[in-house]
Amino acid sequence: MALSFFDQFMSPTHLGIPLIALALTLPWTLFPKPSSRWLNNRLLTLQNWFINSFTQQIFLPINPEGHKWATLLTSLMIFLITLNMLGLLPYTFTPTTQLSLNMAFAVPLWLATVLIGLRYQPNHALAHLLPEGTPTLLIPILIIIETISLFIRPLALGVRLTANLTAGHLLIQLIATAAFVLLPLMPAVAIMTSILLLLLTLLEVAVDMIQAYVFVLLVSLYLQENV
Fold this sequence. Notes:
Blueprint: E1 13-14, E2 17-18, H1 20-25, H2 42-59, H3 70-86, H4 99-120, H5 122-127, H6 139-182, H7 187-226
Antiparallel strand pairs: 1-2
Helix pairs in contact: 3-7, 4-6, 4-7, 6-7
């Protein structure tokens, strides 16, 4: 029983072919396409309002040089939210519960921000490794600590997203299993458990959106340090 709880996180395959590529491609077909009409429909208007609000909020404190990342980070935000939300549907697979996929998102973005800082502002980028006013004896130790913290950033991005989604899915499955087992034995308790499951599902929807936002927000903060 303990192993079956983790079967939902296994990458699905068909005839030995991994289907994670299909799971990553499907969300793009669900987005409304831009229209050439003067007036858009409600769904397209809502999407445009969300993109504009998110872009203004994220890139307001960033220098104009960093605004080139607006399309990339906004697309990543919408993509992660869609993947996380689709994973809550029955008989679906959540690709963002795979640490390898999240690291594939986190490492290139983090590395790009670091390389941008080293190319355009090398002194400012290296200054983050040594806080101002550090005593002479602590300089080697602090440089090592700051370097380790710098390289831990992409790992923290990937692990945070993976751990939060995995924990939420496991908790939902545990409570759903408990409600199913308790239904013939104690119907009243099973109904209360089902209500708790509904509330937890609503909470998980909020967590999915927040985790996607936090992922992109942290990348924008790394970008802000280097532009």
